[in-house]
Amino acid sequence: MKRLRTVVAVGVMLAALGAGEAVWAVDTTKLPDPALQERYSVLTHELRCMQCQNESLADSPVDLAADLRREVRDQLLAGKSDDDVRAWMAARYGDFILFRPRYSWRNAWLWGAPGALLLLGALVAWRIVRQRSTLLATDYEPIEEDGHS
Amino acid sequence: MNRFLLPLGVFVLLAAVLAIGIKHSPDKGIIASPLLGKPAPQFALPNLTDPAHVVRSSDLKGRWYLFNVWGTWCGECRAEHDMLLQVHQAAVVPLIGLDWKDDDAQALAWLQQLGNPYESVAADRAGRTAIDWGVYGAPETFLVNPQGVVVYKHVGALTYQTWTREILPRVSRTTPAGS
Fold first, then answer.
1. B32-174: what CATH class?
2. pTM of the model
3. Is residue A18 part of a domain?
4. Binary contact (B136, A124; C-beta < 8 A)
5. Is residue A84 part of a domain?
6. Residues of B whose CB is below 8 A from A68
7. DSSP, res B36
8. Phi and psi for B53 in degrees, rounded to 5?
9. What is the rounded CA–CA span in Å between residue A122 and residue B62?
10. SS3 per residue for A15-35
11. Chain B within 8 Å of A124 (Cβ-Cβ)?
């Protein structure tokens, strides 16, 4: 009996959570096709709200974000590709609107930096290892073991 | 000596990267417009003060103009208005207004009450033109040259400093002396 009550209580709480989420949702746009809806959702989540700057279009309640979401919806319905929509947005608001930055010659060094740093690190590590091994090779003193002598 | 060279090099590189980052940080509130150096977006919108007519970007070709985005719902726009009246008085470059997502009656009342600095005001009721111009807040002001290219953008209320340091020099450089 007690167990049943717990199950019911947890169920009610979960239901309340779900209901809450629906109420909080800023964007309730529905597209006719689930595939389009999915693309719409991905796009609005990776485009920045320019007024709030650290929120995505999907999460922002401001007017401009609603206008830009409508723009995304209309362009998807008109058969534009995801890249078309991103390019359209970037042409007006700059790359800053894209949470997922595009590769360009201006930020190429950023994309290449991790590889270059890894290479640099490997070089330094290799030099240290080689130095130590030459030191060891010329070191004839017996190694003292702490606590065992 | 040699062993300090690498750390020093890394330090200089890091300092350079951070300096660039600080200088261009969007957190300073100003996001460089991709429109700079590009043709101004086309528009054809009803004239706020004369609904029978249309304000067309193509009619503005061949001369300088300041494109000022405002709305009666925008507090900074009221703060900016006196500066706009001064710009109008100076008669160096015409002001073209874009009344962004506004109520026509309220906008007309605003102009009547505070004075109208604009040569014409385009009513962008749906906000489509503002998006084409990459506007993300009002007020914003764009300087467009006679070839129809955007040469400067100011975000926020137009100040006397911006007017004298950024706008006037650009306009007078190409305008024949005395005109």
1. alpha beta
2. 0.75
3. no
4. no
5. yes
6. 131
7. T
8. -110, 160
9. 60
10. HHHHHHHHHHCCCCCCCCCHH
11. yes
Looking at residue B30, its amino acid is: I
Chain A residues with CB under 8 Å of B74 CB are none
B67/B98 Cα distance (integer angstroms): 7
End-to-end alpha-carbon separation of chain A, Å? Answer: 67
Please check whether residue B72 is in contact with residue B81, taking contact to mean a CB–CB distance below 8 angstroms. Answer: no
Which residue in B has a C-alpha nearest to residue A64's C-alpha? B136
Determine contact, residues B48/B100, Cβ cutoff 8 Å.
no
Q: Could you tell me the residue range of the domain that residue A83 belongs to? A: 28-102
Locate B28 and state its tokens.
């300073």
> In CATH, what number is assigned to the domain containing residue A71?
1.10.8.640
Three-state DSSP at B98 gives strand
Residue extents of the structural domains in chain B? 32-174
Domain assignment present for residue A109? The answer is: no
Residue A11 clears pLDDT 60, i.e. is over it: yes
- pLDDT tens digits, residue range B84-105? 999 999 999 999 999 999 999 9
Q: In chain B, which residues have their Cβ closer than 8 Å to the Cβ of A96? A: 26, 31
The domain tally of chain A equals 1
Which residue in chain A has the smallest CA separation from B27?
A: A53
Which of B131, B134, B136 is opposite residue A51, by nearest beta carbon?
A: B136
- Whether the predicted interface score ipTM is above 0.90: no
Asked whether residue A119 is domain-assigned, the answer is: no
> How far is the C-alpha of B165 from the C-alpha of B122, rounded, in Å?
27
Tell me how far apart the alpha carbons of residues A137 and B16 are, in angstroms, rounded to a whole number: 41
